């Protein structure tokens, strides 16, 4: 197996405002089950991705997750963390503990290198391109959102988006227009039907 090109990239001189995403490659100290091993996620699922390495959600992000869960009580709401979440943060009285009390909210750990394995972006990630990005947290989030839809199908939301109405009437494949000439990266819904497969495969290969 080819060794990922991480060490050299992470040690490169970086401008001091670059966020550090080295947590994406840390396995120790994690209280969450890996998403890679979970085969039982239902088709009616909404996904959020936390890629900042904080290992928790702030109150604004927690409100986004809760809004999706309250509006879609029959859907599973999945929050994927690309860095470790400790047992102390998960089980003490913070935002994650509060969200755990809502039955349809689930937390998972996303191990980046394992998650992209076998996808069109595996070589891109293993080559260290995200580590060299000017905006590594944002670019990692955008990439893993697409990978999640490629692997699972469902709806992806950003952690600063509130859900006011259910998505059932929108169909299985849809995207939001940001302006007359641009589409937003989220919210985004891609199904596992042939149309959805063509769209998401094309998006990952761009």
UniProtKB/TrEMBL annotation:
It comes from the Eukaryota. Pfam families: Gly_transf_sug (PF04488). One of its GO terms (biological process) is glycosphingolipid biosynthetic process. GO terms for cellular component: membrane. Coiled coil: none annotated. One of its GO terms (molecular function) is alpha-1,4-N-acetylgalactosaminyltransferase activity. Gene3D superfamilies: 3.90.550.20. This is Alpha-1,4-N-acetylglucosaminyltransferase. It comes from Mythimna separata.
């Amino acid at each position: 197996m080819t060794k990922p090109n991480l060490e050299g990239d992470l040690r490169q001189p970086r401008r001091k405002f670059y966020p550090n995403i080295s947590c994406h490659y840390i396995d120790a100290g994690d209280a969450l089950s890996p998403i890679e091993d979970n085969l039982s996620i239902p088709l009616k699922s909404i996904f959020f991705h936390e890629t900042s390495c904080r290992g928790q959600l702030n109150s604004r992000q927690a409100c986004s997750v809760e809004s999706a869960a309250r509006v879609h009580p029959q859907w599973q709401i999945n929050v994927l963390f690309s860095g470790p979440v400790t047992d102390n943060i998960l089980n003490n009285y913070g935002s994650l503990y509060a969200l755990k009390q809502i039955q349809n909210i689930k937390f998972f750990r996303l191990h980046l290198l394992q998650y992209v394995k076998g996808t069109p972006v595996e070589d891109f990630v293993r080559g260290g391109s995200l580590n060299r990005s000017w905006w590594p947290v944002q670019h990692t989030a955008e990439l893993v959102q697409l990978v999640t839809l490629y692997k699972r199908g469902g709806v992806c939301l950003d952690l600063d988006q509130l859900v006011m109405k259910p998505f059932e009437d929108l169909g299985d494949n849809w995207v939001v227009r940001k302006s007359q000439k641009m589409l937003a990266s989220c919210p985004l819904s891609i199904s596992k039907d042939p149309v959805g497969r063509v769209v998401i495969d094309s998006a990952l290969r761009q």
